[in-house]
Amino acid sequence: MRFTSTPRGARLARRLVSLRLDEWGHPYDGRVNEAVTLISAEFAANAVQHGRVPGRDFHLRLAGGEDVVRLEVSDTLTERLPERRAPSGEGGRGLMLVEALADKWGVAPRQPGKTVWAEVRLSPATEG
């Protein structure tokens, strides 16, 4: 889906992720839903705050497989890639959170811009 590069767009993206995961059998209070929703909140907020190009939206893709959920957020700014940095004040903790919650994450180039992605593995014993 495409969202406006605004705080409202980021909030709607996060809500859509949580709703869709619940529809796929990952309840709101389950490990997968909570992890992927938090990661989507971070990626969407970064797309709005650091990847925004006036007049361009950001894109979100959510894919579920038998053993993994993959989230991708794409924006159109190539110059600013996500980088882990030391926390300062109220910022700098987002990618630390992503690293703690995701099994894998990374950045892929696209034209124009970049796609930030994360994967969370499903636990067969606890997830549907």
Automatic annotation (TrEMBL):
<dbReference type="InterPro" id="IPR050267">
    <property type="entry name" value="Anti-sigma-factor_SerPK"/>
</dbReference>
<keyword id="KW-0808">Transferase</keyword>
<keyword id="KW-0418">Kinase</keyword>
<dbReference type="InterPro" id="IPR003594">
    <property type="entry name" value="HATPase_dom"/>
</dbReference>
<dbReference type="Pfam" id="PF13581">
    <property type="entry name" value="HATPase_c_2"/>
</dbReference>
<keyword id="KW-0723">Serine/threonine-protein kinase</keyword>
<feature type="domain" description="Histidine kinase/HSP90-like ATPase">
    <location>
        <begin position="5"/>
        <end position="118"/>
    </location>
</feature>
<protein>
    <recommendedName>
        <fullName>Histidine kinase/HSP90-like ATPase domain-containing protein</fullName>
    </recommendedName>
</protein>
<dbReference type="InterPro" id="IPR036890">
    <property type="entry name" value="HATPase_C_sf"/>
</dbReference>
